[in-house]
């Protein structure tokens, strides 16, 4: 009788281990939708690139870039580029983001990143800031950043702004990805409001 009991225990352990492994895989997320559900995928299979725009509802510079990000989204959506508005500041609530989006227009792809999974991936420091991700060569639905930094050169520093941008760094980086070129990095730092992490 000992042998069957031992076999049952081994099988039970194997199923338990398998279940834990599956649970661990399911825990990999990219922040949360506004309804609280985890974001398990940033783009459908076959997407060319993912663009992250780190935003804050209470940052004037971030708010002024919303029209530009909409323009970029419309320009590249047909070519398989998915753009996300990412709200990374710790303490930002879904209700606050909903109110912000209502004021500036609803977005299809909006998420909260309180644990800074995407902030870490993109090395983001301020809002507004952007990143371009491409599918990782290792597969598995993961992404790697090929561009990190400012949207353009409109802001030279806090309080110092051009009438219009002369270098469109993010737009150029997206084009580089789509055309198979080496992605050129930004020619200056991102200017904006510091991202707030957990205390």
Overview of this structure, please?
This protein has two domains: 1-28; 31-194, Glutaredoxin (3-Layer(aba) Sandwich), CATH 3.40.30. It has helices spanning 2-26, 60-64, 66-76, 94-104, 117-122, 169-179, and strands spanning 49-54, 81-87, 110-112, 126-127, 129-135, 143-149, 155-157, 160-161, 193-194. It is built from six helices and nine strands; from the N terminus they run H-E-H-H-E-H-E-H-E-E-E-E-E-H-E. It is globular. It is α/β, with parallel strands linked by helices and 199 residues long. The model is unreliable at 5-27 (pLDDT under 50). A hairpin with a 7-residue loop joins strand 5 (129-135) and strand 6 (143-149).
First and last CA, distance: 57 Å
Q: Indicate the radius of gyration in whole angstroms.
A: 20 Å
Mean pLDDT: 86
Assign a percent range to the helix content: 25-40%
Q: Helix and strand succession?
A: HEHHEHEHEEEEEHE
Point out poorly predicted stretches: 5-27
Total helices: the number is: 6
How would the global form be characterised? Answer: globular
Second CATH tier, the architecture of the largest domain: 3-Layer(aba) Sandwich
